[in-house]
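Researcher: Structure for this, please.
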Amino acid sequence: MFFDQARGIDRVLEKSTTILAVLFMLLSIVISIWV
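Model: Predicted structure, token format:
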């Protein structure tokens, strides 16, 4: 039960890091266009 919960948290962390990476990439592209 606890293991499943930890795995769920791990999945959420993985998804959030992926979203952060995409946002960071978009931000760098926008900055490179802006400057």
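Researcher: Any notable elements?
Model: The CA atoms of residues 5 and 11 lie 10 Å apart. The chain has one domain: 1-34.
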